[in-house]
Design a protein that fits this description.
Blueprint: E1 5-10, E2 15-21, E3 23-28, E4 31-35, E5 42-46, E6 49-54, E7 61-65, E8 68-72, E9 76-81, E10 84-86
Parallel strand pairs: 1-9
Antiparallel strand pairs: 1-2, 3-4, 3-6, 5-8, 6-7, 7-10, 8-9
């Protein structure tokens, strides 16, 4: 699968990730959800847990996150989080 979309993970202090992804797994209010290219637009509440960003040609990046919000549009995903910790030190 070579189709990509843009993912941005933002906290009040920094942009923790801004780049391409093959898929993103998010801990949402109603359970864990995955977003792939072409996902329908949505807004969702993020709960404490692990965000996993699958990147092309690299190890996935994982963040331990607190609460926040997720916005999915046709071409990108924005995740606004109160705070996070990078749990996988894969090359970004």
């Amino acid at each position: 699968m070579s189709e990509l979309f843009k993912v941005k993970v933002i906290t009040p202090k920094e942009v923790a990730y801004d780049g391409p992804a093959l898929a993103v797994t998010i801990p949402a209010e109603n359970g864990e959800m995955q977003v792939y290219p072409g996902h329908i637009p949505l807004l969702a509440r993020v709960v404490s847990g692990i965000i996993r960003i699958e990147k092309p040609g690299a190890k996935p990046i994982t963040f331990s996150v607190d609460a926040g919000f997720l916005r999915v549009t046709q071409d990108d995903v924005s995740i606004l989080i109160d705070s996070l910790i990078l749990t996988d030190l894969a090359e970004q």
